[in-house]
Amino acid sequence: VPSGTAMGLPAAVRDRVAAVHRGSALPERLRLYDGWAALYEQDVAALEYRAPYLAAASLAFAFPAPRAEARLLDVACGTGLVARELHRRGFRCLDGVDGSAGMLERARSTGLYQELRLCVLGREPLPAPAEHYDAVTVVGALGEGQVPSTVLPELLRVTKPGGFLCLTTRSNPSNLRYKAELEAALGQLEQRGAWQKLLAQEVEYWERATSEEESTQGTGYISGVVYIYQKCPVPNLEEG
User: From the Swiss-Prot or TrEMBL record, what is one GO molecular function term (predicted)?
Assistant: First the structure.
């Protein structure tokens, strides 16, 4: 391995990825994302980041036809990588939210979204009425130092009864505590009858690791997981 490239990744890519995952305070992290926007897509290509593809494929598999009219919300949409994959699978009515203005600017230039709004998830509610979307995706943002697992009820709020939620998280060592918290929260909502789990798919080659410590058994990759939930169609009468 040439010096300065762990796991065959350029050092600059590694540093940028590490910076946003370092769990810095929110304003600083959003500033990092703004600054990363221009290089984001080339960096995730270098990482062989498969989450947008895997999430869109999983949602399309679960989703009943037709798709063209279905309203989707892409949460933490970034530059529009997930939108591109959803669009390829026949989804046309996409809205997006992200905490980074720089990322939203890139997403806007794709022309794939009907509406894009700035929203810092975990700090403020989603800019959408209740039961508005047929599906909600959160790909890549549910992780240590990013979006807290406490946002799940807010994601449910904007989803129609019978609608779908597609979530992803990473299974690398530094995210395992977060993943356990997330799965506990997912399970609690299922026990309360808020939604039903349709899929929890562990994927070995999620993206390239940025360090040896994070790599799964020396493969040079980290693993991740795609979850698909369906919001229960019947309102929960025990509430209140």
Answer: S-adenosylmethionine-dependent methyltransferase activity
